[in-house]
Structure formats: C-alpha cells, structure tokens
Amino acid sequence: MSIKYKKIDSINGIILVRDFVNVVGFEEIIESWEYLIKNNMLKDNVMGVINDLRDCELNMDMKKFETLITYMQTQNHLKGMKLAVVCDLPGKLVFPMLAESRNNDLKIKGFSTISAAEVWINY
Fold it and tell me: Sheet containing 82-86: which strands, arranged edge to edge?
C-alpha cells in the first residue's frame, strides 16, 4: 500500500489530501492517521482532509469500520475537522455514508470528485 500526501492551498487555509493506491485496509488507514499526527501535519490551519480512495482496493468490513470510527473519535486532532472521502464505487461510498449518518463527533462526507470535496471543506 502506498499513500501520497499533498496540500491544497484554499481560501480559508490548507486542505490535506491523502491519495490511497493499491490495497488499503484498516491497518493502513490507522497508520496514515498516526503518521499525520506524529509529523504534526494536522495543524490549526488545516481545515480538512480529503481521502481519495478512487485508485485503491478498499479491504474493509463492518467490524473494522466500526473500530476505525472509534479510533477516529478518540483523536482530538480530528474533532471539528471536515473529513471528505472521494470514492468511485458504491462499495467504497457506503463507509463514509454510514459514518456521516451514525455519529455526530466526526464531520465525514462522501464525494465523487476532489473539487466537490474541496468546496464542502471550504464552506
């Protein structure tokens, strides 16, 4: 698994983008969040994170998904930050849709394009 990180300068701050490629599972997603936290990449000027899953094979079941959400809810860095998930297949889109509808602690929303995700994060 490989993750490419980039930043988008937006009108209100910075949007961090994580491009996931190859096979991505629960462990890789947790490792990526830990990397961002450890390397102080989720600073106050970061308005949100776009997680681009279009070029990966998502290896996730409901049990791992629930564990991931629980982990994310415990991370103070993520509270109040908008987390966009860009997906190309319904099997991937179901996870951000469930996260959006099930919890109020995280601001998660699914999109089909980077530009739509960027607009949502900005406003």
Answer: 2-10, 13-25, 46-59, 82-86, 107-111
